Amino acid sequence: YKAPVNLTILLVQVINEFFPMMEEKTITVRQEIEPELILSADADKMARVFDNLFRNAVNYSHAGTEIVCSARKGNGCILVNIKNKGEQIPQEKLVHIFDKFYRLDSSRQSATGGAGLGLAIAKQIVELHDGTIDVMCNDGVTEFRIVLPV
Question: What is the DSSP letter of 89?
Fold first, then answer.
């Protein structure tokens, strides 16, 4: 079910839900989100995508670092970037990050309690909205890029 969604408000709401977790780890968040980013989407599913990406960003950020969330319009689409600073993810693991049940390593399982489905589901939802999601990691800065058509 798709309807007009204000992605600006949705992103801010998702970020706000993580303030207690971020405070605990002394993580700050920088929001570079353009006003009135509207797209046709399933709001609940989109919230799930960004909830998942933020949960990962908070869980895998080093204490005292900053998460950057930017969102802007460009060329008939909305571009959302979520960046955090943590451990370097090796390229051979990065290529599997969206696979179902794939975990970077087993020791992370107990710390975050995830089943390894979050990013696979996020990718599926973004693709159902005719968008793309990808990831890169350089010097411990992990960046997820989501492109959604408007």
Answer: P
H helices of 37-144, where? 43-60, 91-94, 106-112, 118-128
Per residue in 4-43, pLDDT (tens digit) is 999 999 999 999 999 999 999 999 999 999 999 999 999 9
Q: How many CA atoms lie within 13 A of 52 on its CB side?
A: 24
Q: At CA 102, angle to CA 98 and CA 108, rounded to 5?
A: 115
pLDDT of residue 100: 81
Alpha-carbon distance of 65 to 73, in angstroms, equals 27
Residues 6+ apart with CB under 8 A from 116: 100, 101, 102, 103, 109
